[in-house]
Design brief:
The protein is an all-alpha fold and 143 residues long. The chain has one domain (26-142). Helix content is 77%, strand content 0%. It has 6 helices and no strands.
């Protein structure tokens, strides 16, 4: 009985590992409409694609426009752009919090699970991306 349990566990872990390491996550097609952001921050585009599980395409496009503006401002490397980057980052964080608070998790188990996964994994990763963008911008402008 113990070997059957171990075999089932091994098969489950192997399936997750194969899925995670052999199939790299891809960004949604919507990211092609925002070339500044998706070319400069490809891993961020993948993380942002996951938000489509909880929100509408129109709402995500609003967030993506802000990210696209961040990419343009970051390329400018002006001293005055520090404030604009910080302001946009705050707006993005506020918009993502609003999206998360408006998810009606009582509608389905999938919504509940997706919200949990995005809150625990995706949002911290996006916030880390934003912190890195601002930090790197400050390092290049102030150097």
């Amino acid at each position: 009985m113990k070997t059957v349990g171990n075999a089932v566990l091994f098969v489950g872990v192997a399936a997750i590992a194969i899925q995670r390491f052999t199939l790299p996550p891809k960004a949604h097609e919507i990211m092609k409409d925002y070339p500044n952001m998706s070319s400069k921050y490809p891993s961020l585009a993948v993380d942002l694609s996951k938000l489509l599980l909880l929100t509408t395409e129109e709402r995500l496009r609003g967030i993506l426009r802000m990210f696209d503006e961040i990419a343009v401002i970051d390329n400018a490397k002006l001293h005055s752009s520090q404030w604009r980057l910080a302001r946009l980052i705050k707006q993005i964080n506020t918009e993502m919090s609003t999206v998360m608070s408006e998810v009606e998790i009582w509608k389905s188990d999938d919504l509940f699970l997706n919200k949990q996964l995005i809150e625990e994994d995706t949002l911290p990763a996006i916030e880390q991306h934003l912190d890195n963008i601002l930090h790197n911008h400050l390092m290049t402008v102030c150097a």
